[in-house]
Amino acid sequence: MHKLLKKEYTGENYLNDDQERPQKTKNLNLMNLFRYINSKLITIFNKLRLIKMKLLGAKIGRNVRVFGKFTVIGNLSKLTIGDNSTINEGVLFDLRDRITIGSNVHLSSYVQLHTGKLTLYNIPRKHVKEPIIIEDNVWLASSVIVSAGVKIGKNTVIGAGSVVIRSISQDCFCAGNPAKKIKNLNSDSNGSKSL
Fold it and tell me: What per-residue confidence (pLDDT) applies to 34?
């Protein structure tokens, strides 16, 4: 590694009076600038998307954060998202029926919320729709799938890759396919969770 580049990476001071700064460092700075501009453009785009969703009927609270692209299928007037909630890359909202998301909810990457499903025991099988309710302070980890008619109680955490087909009580950690309660969570007065 070039001596000046090594000093720059380690944070050491160096004088650059008789040598030019290495071209690699210039390229790294240019790449960082492009990454910064790209992240700002994505942030602006996501804020505009939330405004558009509100104009089309969605009820979206204050300080809702979006990190990446997400998909909405159906009528936006059936979507409610509470204050300070987070939507990450790849989240899917299937709005055949209402989806109500409380405040301080974290939807991790590739979470799917489906309000439509097939009847299992009636033949011929028919499509039915039921609402999904996610209460305050819930965290759905990456790739969680929530089925129609499910209510997830406040302060609950659902483990990565879980499939939630039945309602879940509050203050617990659930995981699996189908999701089952693993243990209770103790919440303090600030809403912080501990195992």
Answer: 79
